[in-house]
Amino acid sequence: MHKGLTGNQLKLIAMVTMTVDHIGFILLPQVVWLRLIGRLSFPIYAWFIGEGCRHTRSMPRYLGSVAAMALLCQCVSYAATGSLYQCILVTFSLSIGLIFLLQKAKETSHWLWAALFAAALAAVWFLTETLPTLLPGTDYGVDYDFWGVILPVVVWIMPKKRYKLLSAATVMAVMAVLNSLQWFAFPALGLLALYNGQRGRRNIKRLFYYYYPAHLAALYLITML
Predict the structure, then answer these.
(1) CA-CA distance, 132 to 122, in Å (whole number)?
(2) What's the CA gap between 175 and 193, in Å, rounded?
(3) 126: Cβ–Cβ under 8 A, 6 or more apart, which residues?
(4) Which of 8, 96, 120, 192 is close enough to 200 for a disulfide, judged by CB 3.0 to 4.6 Å?
(5) Can you say how many angstroms the Cα of residue 16 is from the centroid of all Cα atoms in its chain?
(6) Within a 10 A sphere around the Cβ of 68, how many other Cβ atoms?
(7) Would you tell me how many other CB atoms lie within 10 Å of the CB of residue 126?
(8) Three-state DSSP state, 6
(9) Which residues pair with 195 in a beta bridge?
(10) What is the distance between the alpha carbons of residues 143 and 90, in angstroms, rounded to a whole number?
(11) Contact 171, 154 (CB under 8 A)
(12) Does the predicted model carry a pTM greater than 0.70?
């Protein structure tokens, strides 16, 4: 038996803490500790987005599936609430897109792919940091902003777990300086340090993509009732 935590166990921890976070955000905004618990979920999910890009057989297919679910969630969210805020699946779609371009640049060593990656990085900065300032009076923003997009990228780049943890900690420190609530995300690195590299008995990779819109719909339905 392998010691430590499997990928499935870590993803379930992230799912539970994400749900606690959203309960706090949507139903009980006055209960701050729910939001603090919820900080654990993003680094875990970001880690496995980076790892998923490393192990997927088809990066375009992986990007397409995440982006399609992101589009569905955004359409439903806008129809239900009129919100322009971009959910975490949009953040991860941008991450996967950057990783795809960076992988092509590394594999081909062609200047065109490097230029496309640089242009995409600038576009991500514009979407996450500049565009919100150009849309005053709206709630437009991208979940976890620019550095949230970058976190899965640095996890993908680093070849060994200790380097992944160190680079993730560096990005998370920048995020925490910009938003002090993110200091409470650091215990997630302790959980990720226990990752044993094993998936677990079952393949639950699609569970999050189904659970994410379903639990949000349920929470918003509760608010309507």
Answers:
(1) 15
(2) 20
(3) none
(4) 8
(5) 15
(6) 13
(7) 12
(8) coil
(9) 5
(10) 8
(11) yes
(12) yes
